[in-house]
Amino acid sequence: MRQVWTKGSERRDRTGVGTRALFGAMLRFDLSDGTVPLITTKRVFWKSAVKELVWFLAGQTNIRPLVQQGVHIWTDWPMERHRNATGETLSRDAFEARILSDEAFAAEWGELGPVYGKQWRRWLGPDGQTHDQIEALLSSLKNNPASRRHIFTGWNVAELGGMALPPCHMTYQYFVEPRSDGPDRLSGILYQRSCDLGLGFPFNIFEAALLVRMLAAQCGYAPGEIIWMGADVHLYLNHAHLVETMLAREPRPFPTLSLSPAASLFDYRLEHVTLTGYDPHPAIAAPVAV
Ligand SMILES: Nc1nc(=O)c2c([nH]1)NC[C@@H]1CN(c3ccc(C(=O)N[C@@H](CCC(=O)O)C(=O)O)cc3)CN21
Ligand SMILES: O=c1ccn([C@H]2C[C@H](O)[C@@H](COP(=O)(O)O)O2)c(=O)[nH]1
User: Fold this and answer.
1) 35-47: string of b/e by CB count within 10 Å (b at 16+)?
2) Do residues 13 and 290 touch, judged by C-beta distance below 8 A?
3) Segment 201-227 mean pLDDT
């Protein structure tokens, strides 16, 4: 964060807010001791992150189930579309209330298009067949651990145009490391093409680590590492307060995550996730660039 803030090049971006950005970064976090990379220099609403990951894994692309669970992070995009299309200016609360109360409205205006969930679980092939990349991944991890093809991606070129936003955390790859002195170890790499370090990153890295933990648990492996590769890694210029406050704070130890057993990868819920030792500095509000 300090590097991006002090060395990043200032540029205009799609949202009009402006960023400082560096291109190409890598971070590695060891998951083998049960800890997870959950930022401590501000409080991260990790329960929302768990719910978002569960929503991706369920193949969902409509904000309604998120809003029903009190998760507001995706509301601004469909709200913007509704506003531009109808000229109606509902407040965010009113828009969410309508999404909750009116199923037909939610079906029309809560939809983000063929975003993550669709591509992960129902990638549409040229022959009309859908591909469940996550089921295929589970099967290759279990049955062909030495494979170099343990990959799934949200970057479906043919469908980018229909998405509210093209995927940011776009490609995931896994590696099973054989060990003689214990269970084999599962590591993951996340390639993120565009990273909002202030708001998106804390969710993205935590969810990527949690997904390694879930996959490892489902396949009988021990967790190894999560490696994060960021391409356009940026801080929004209107996040100065957030950045300076976080940089002035002393990082604290990462919490430990325990995951109770679930019948399948698709049966995990918030209730399966327990964090111990999460003692962050206070939350910092910051505007999201739409
Ligand atoms: N500019 C931008 N940054 C993002 O991180 C981002 C997007 N756009 N568009 C799509 C999704 C939505 N994401 C978001 C959106 C908002 C928050 C956010 O406002 N977080 C606050 C409140 C969290 C809460 O209420 O649970 C935070 O303090 O983390 C986080 C991630 C991540 N993505
Ligand atoms: O999971 C996410 C989703 C989005 N972001 C950020 C990265 C950018 O700031 C915007 C997307 O804008 P683009 O112009 O499409 O790059 O959202 C994130 O960090 N993590």
Assistant:
1) bbbbbbbbbbebe
2) no
3) 98
Q: Is 219 one of the annotated binding-site residues?
A: no
Read off the pLDDT of residues 140-166 as tens digits, 9 standing for 90 and up. 999 999 999 999 999 999 999 999 999
Of 168, 172, 191, 193, best ligand 2 pocket probe by most atoms within 8 Å of the beta carbon: 168
ipTM: 0.98
Which residues have C-beta within 8 Å of that of residue 119, sequence separation ≥ 6? 133, 153, 154, 155, 156, 159, 167
Report d(CA 116, CA 95) in Å as an integer: 23
Secondary-structure class of domain 2-58+132-276 per CATH: alpha beta
CB 189 within 8 A of CB 227: yes
Q: Please give the biggest Cα pair distance in the chain.
A: 64
Q: How far is the CA of 265 from the centre of ligand 1 (A)?
A: 25
Domain boundaries, the chain: 2-58+132-276
Q: Are 60 and 89 in contact (CB under 8 A)?
A: no
Report the separation in Å between the CA atom of 73 and the middle of ligand 1, taken as the mean of its atom positions. Answer: 5
pTM check: above 0.95: yes
Helix (H) or strand (E) holding 131: strand 130-131
Q: Which helix (H) or strand (E) segment is 121 a member of?
A: helix 116-122
* 285 contact partners, CB below 8 Å, separation of at least 6: none
CA distance 52 to 16: 26
Written in H, E and C, the secondary structure of 44-58 is CCHHHHHHHHHHHHC
